[in-house]
Amino acid sequence: MSARARAELPAAERLRITEIFHSLQGEAASVGHPTVFVRLTGCPLRCHYCDTEYAFYGGGWRTVDEVLSQVASYGARFVCVTGGEPLAQPNCAQLLARLCDAGYRVSLETSGAMDIRGLDPRVERVMDWKTPGSGEASRNLLSNLTVLTAQDQIKLVLCDRADYEWAKYALIEHGLAERCEVLFSPSHGQLDARELAEWILADRLPVRFQIQLHKYLWGNERGR
Ligand code: SF4
């Protein structure tokens, strides 16, 4: 199909896709599993530490059927829909449901700034809770917290000690650890991973420490 024909696809059928690739899941509950990543184009946020700025613009229109067909070609059991901010495209919900129907274990990486209600309940939501160090903490949607279940995860990327103290307060203020698993992760190249690990242990926090596995294996290489 030509680029022009793709751009003329009915709005109800199309998604703007930056890339689809096969790699190891680098974070969250399914870390280490071979996974197909579907990266949707566009994000309304501008986090200081963003490592996927190339997904803000560009990409190409694809139908949901085309995405499913490429995903199937890798033969993986896990699929992660990511961005950008995937929920910025209304057809993302349809894609998630179709992937679940096809039998994949599906996760969604979302910024926490978009409403997560109404998504297929089989989808594992990995939702950011933006800290002041990201520059986007004011975008956190409080209403999302009430929707999370035990199969979801809240991820806080911490830039410095001030972020860590803020995150500790957020744990208590919003009862985060009672809602689902809470992930604390150092902003790569900004906060020393070992330092964060020691803070968590010293404070006996009920959180799961994680580093981004793919960054240690492949650095910032795109499509990894
Ligand atoms: S929400 Fe994610 S993709 Fe969007 S700017 Fe922040 S880190 Fe980048």
Description:
This protein has 224 residues and is an alpha/beta fold. It has helices at 3-7, 64-72, 92-101, 142-145, 161-173, 176-179, 193-203, 213-218; strands at 14-24, 34-40, 60-63, 78-82, 105-110, 124-128, 153-158, 181-186, 208-209. The chain has a 9-stranded mixed sheet with strand order 3-1-2-4-5-6-7-8-9. Strand 8, helix 7 (193-203) and strand 9 form a beta-alpha-beta unit. The mean pLDDT is 94. The chain binds iron/sulfur cluster (SF4). Iron/sulfur cluster binds next to loops.
Q: Nutshell version of this structure?
A:
With 224 residues, the chain is α/β, with parallel strands linked by helices.
Biggest sheet features: 9 strands, mixed
Cα-based radius of gyration, to the nearest Å: 17 Å
Strand share of the residues? 15-25%
Report the principal-axis shape.
globular
Keyword list:
alpha/beta; binds iron/sulfur cluster; nine-stranded mixed β-sheet; 224 residues; single chain; 23% strand; 28% helix; 9 strands; globular
Topology of this protein?
Blueprint: H1 3-7, E1 14-24, E2 34-40, E3 60-63, H2 64-72, E4 78-82, H3 92-101, E5 105-110, E6 124-128, H4 142-145, E7 153-158, H5 161-173, H6 176-179, E8 181-186, H7 193-203, E9 208-209, H8 213-218
Parallel strand pairs: 2-4, 4-5, 5-6, 6-7, 7-8, 8-9
Antiparallel strand pairs: 1-2, 1-3
Residues 43, 45-47, 50, 52, 83-85, 111 line the site of iron/sulfur cluster (SF4).
